[in-house]
Design goal:
The complex is a heterodimer of chains A (365) and B (313). Chain A is globular, with a radius of gyration of 23 Å. Chain A has helices at residues 2-27, 35-52, 58-75, 80-102, 107-110, 132-158, 161-164, 178-190, 205-215, 232-235, 261-270, 294-297, 348-355, 358-364, and strands at residues 170-174, 194-198, 223-227, 241-245, 248-250, 255-258, 275-278, 284-285, 319-320, 325-328, 335-337. Chain A has 14 helices and 11 strands. Chain B has 2 domains: 2-125, no CATH class; 135-308, 3-Layer(aba) Sandwich (Rossmann fold), CATH 3.40.50. In chain B, strand 10 and strand 11 form a beta hairpin. The chains are: A alpha/beta (365), B alpha/beta (313). The A-B interface holds A 199-202, 204, 228-234, 237, 258-260, 262-263, 266-267, 270, 291-292, 294, 298, 306-307, 311, 314-323, 326-327 and B 173, 176-177, 183, 186-187, 189-190, 193, 195-207, 209, 231-232, 234-235, 238-239, 242-243, 263-264, 280-281. Strand 9 (319-320) of chain A pairs parallel with strand 3 (195-200) of chain B, so a sheet runs across the interface.
Chain lengths: 365, 313
């Protein structure tokens, strides 16, 4: 009895350690750079749980992942990718279990949530027991496959580039997005077009994108031009396409992107120019937000890049702000390009149904 | 130093009046940057020019002064067009000069012209500013939070005056790299203890939600209702319109110009001595109303203002 207690304590301590390490890494910005890295780190964290923790049944595993997943999601609520990946892994685990029980690939048949018309013939899946070892092995395999899929997503997105950009186009993008960078470069191997890049002060990461595009020898650009943040609307008449990246694609078909993107999308709408959003599936977020929910999606950066602290005394009472993100409503988006094929914003909800289990989403919201 | 070197410059010849040389030097060194201040200084320089004029006995004053003005103007602008509002002023001044009768004496002519110039500054700029402040104050009363972009002296004066009159409001100041001219406005608002927020133009969508009114300055209103303003203004107006926030433009009638344009000239439109910032057109449909000293008008009423003020060519 005592030995079992010690076991339980050490198991929960082990889980706690894995979780705390992940949260600390996340908060201290040790998971560098892009949403891809954050997504990858989250999936790795979930895989560690599956591999190292103790559970006897499928239900125990699901409960474990749910509890831990909820804890890390709550730790960084504006980092949507973390929550998305937790939900995605939960869905994969659920699918894996039904597959093990049924021994077939017809998962849709097994899960009544996937196909309403099959509800009446949903088999009783929960009753069959699966060996823990088998469950662990199969789940980890699925997660590994998923990681591979994630790794390929950027290539899969950019491989569609030439379908959306034509010779002689003038493409406007804003700031720097790794996905857009790859997308444009692949397009430029087949097409010759001009790129306008919004500077995106105060970080001015548009310059970084410009340098990156310029330095690629495989691409021949008609022109690369850095556009000041004030010149977005005046230069719109020359533009034929807007291509931007996203931080999160939301359930209503809207998206979250660098501050300043809303201005670009409104300008595009005003001039009836298509807006293409490149976003890998891990950015798909089952949440409904609007511009009024700033605190739920936005981050405020240090104002020192807007007004240096050395000048603070001249602007005593002023509240200097430097928001990181904008919310862009679905009516301003023409097309999303995830890794498979382009979808309209009105179709995003279907993808959500495919990627996540409704029961998990319900708890998440 | 700069003034001296310009005075010494032999290529300019002696025909240029020192008042204009001084004005150009001060504009070029960006000592004065806003259009209203330049306009007032321009009038002052013109007054000095007219006062130091000596009428030759064999010429009529109207034609002689008219001929003398040309080199002065082309010196000031360096061959480029004058800012629209100042061009308007020059046009009206020339009308005044041409209206001088042939037998007009030097003293009487000078008196008439300087009176006209004094009246212009008093009525069309100083009193107009006060009237616009009063009209805008009533709008600020219900607004609580107002957003503005960059720095316009008229907007600054309006906000400070309304605060002094006890109107309570919060100001969001938007600004842009590299000049960050809005810092000037922020500084004077902070000094007056007005509560402010400050951010770059990319933060517009974050700030616009809390705002109830957008108040912008401009340097000209064209007869098709389009407005010439500092780069970035049209974007701010566009985002405001998308958020259903009214956009007011503060513009004294001397900035109304009988000219039409529908586009912003590309990257060629650079700065001149008298224009220190790059400008752009704000389309009329993004402007809710223009606050003039006459009243608050829709931009489509620009031709009516031109007619009322006899600015039509």
């Amino acid at each position: 009895m005592a030995a079992a207690d010690v076991d339980a304590i050490s198991a929960s301590a082990r889980i706690g350690k894995i979780r705390d390490q992940f949260i600390v890494d996340l908060r201290q910005g040790r998971i560098r750079g892009t949403s891809y890295h954050v997504a990858q780190a989250t999936v790795n964290f979930m895989r560690k749980l599956v591999a190292n923790c103790k559970y006897d049944t499928y239900d125990e595993l699901l409960t474990l992942l749910k509890t831990e997943g909820r804890a890390v999601t709550a730790a960084e609520p504006t980092e949507f990718v973390v929550g998305n990946m937790v939900l995605r892994i939960l869905k994969l685990v659920r699918e894996e279990q039904t597959r093990l029980i049924l021994g077939s690939d017809d998962v849709a048949l097994a899960d009544p949530a996937d196909a309403l018309h099959k509800l009446w013939k949903a088999p009783e899946v929960a009753q069959k027991e699966i060996a823990t070892k088998q469950l662990r092995k199969a789940t980890i395999e699925t997660i590994n496959e998923f990681l591979q899929e994630m790794e390929n997503s950027r290539d899969n997105i950019s491989s569609q580039a030439a379908d959306h950009i034509l010779d002689g186009d003038v493409v406007f993008t804003f700031g720097q997005s790794v996905t857009v960078d790859a997308f444009l470069k692949v397009a430029a191997t087949k097409r010759r077009f001009t790129v306008f890049i919004g500077e995106n002060a105060p970080s001015c990461n548009g310059k970084a994108l410009l340098e990156s595009l310029k330095s690629d020898e495989k691409c021949s650009w008609a022109e690369l031009r850095l556009v000041e943040d004030t010149d977005v609307l005046p230069s719109m008449p020359q533009v034929t396409r807007v291509v931007v990246g996203a931080v999160a694609v939301l359930a209503d078909g809207g998206f979250v992107a660098s501050a300043g993107t809303l201005t670009l999308c409104l300008a595009a709408k005003r001039h009836a120019i298509p807006v293409i959003v490149c976003a890998a599936f891990y950015k798909l977020t089952p949440k409904f937000l609007s511009a009024n929910d700033q605190e739920q999606f936005n981050k405020l950066l240090s104002p020192s890049s807007v007004l240096p602290f050395s000048q603070a005394s001249s602007y005593g009472g002023a509240d200097v702000i430097c928001p990181l993100f904008d919310y862009i409503p679905p009516e301003l988006v023409t097309l999303y390009i995830p890794q498979t094929f382009g979808i309209a914003p009105s179709h995003v909800y279907r993808l959500l149904g495919e990627y996540f289990h409704p029961e998990d989403i319900e708890h998440n919201l | 130093m700069r003034r001296m070197s310009l005075l010494d410059s032999p290529s300019q010849g002696s025909a240029i009046h020192p008042a204009f040389i001084a004005l150009k030097a001060r504009c070029e060194s960006r000592e004065i940057v806003d259009l209203d201040a330049i306009c007032i200084e321009f009038v002052a320089a013109f007054k000095q020019f007219i006062l130091s004029y000596n009428k030759p006995s064999d010429k009529a004053m109207s034609r002689d002064v008219d001929a003398l003005i040309k080199p002065q103007l082309s010196y000031i602008t360096g061959g480029l067009p004058l800012p629209l509002a100042i061009g308007n002023l020059v046009k009206q001044l020339k009308q005044e000069i041409n209206a001088l009768s042939d037998d007009c004496t030097e003293e009487k002519g000078k008196q008439q012209l300087t009176d006209w110039l004094d009246e212009f500054v008093e009525n069309r700029i100083q009193l107009a500013f006060q009237a616009i402040s009063l009209f805008t104050r009533d709008k600020l009363k219900g607004a609580h939070v107002v957003l503005t972009y960059s720095w316009c002296p008229l907007v600054e004066q309006t906000l400070l005056a309304a605060h002094e009159d006890g109107v309570n409001f919060h100001v969001c100041v938007l600004d842009s790299y590299p000049c960050q001219r809005g810092k000037k406005l922020l500084n004077s608002l902070c000094k007056a203890d007005i509560s402010c927020s400050y951010g770059l133009i990319t933060s517009v969508s974050h700030l616009i939600k809390q705002c109830r009114l957008v108040l912008l300055g401009c340097s000209a209103i064209l007869s098709n209702g389009y407005a010439l303003a500092i780069r970035g203004s049209s974007q701010v107006a566009m985002v405001a319109q998308a958020a259903n926030i009214p956009v007011l433009l503060a513009a004294p009638t001397y900035k109304f110009v009988d000219k039409v344009q529908t586009f912003t000239e590309g990257h060629r439109s650079s700065c001149t001595a008298l224009v220190s910032e790059r400008m752009e057109m704000i389309p009329a449909d993004l402007i809710t109303a223009v606050v003039t000293e006459l009243r608050i008008l829709p931009p489509s009423s620009a031709p009516a203002v031109l007619r009322a003020k006899q600015l039509v060519v």
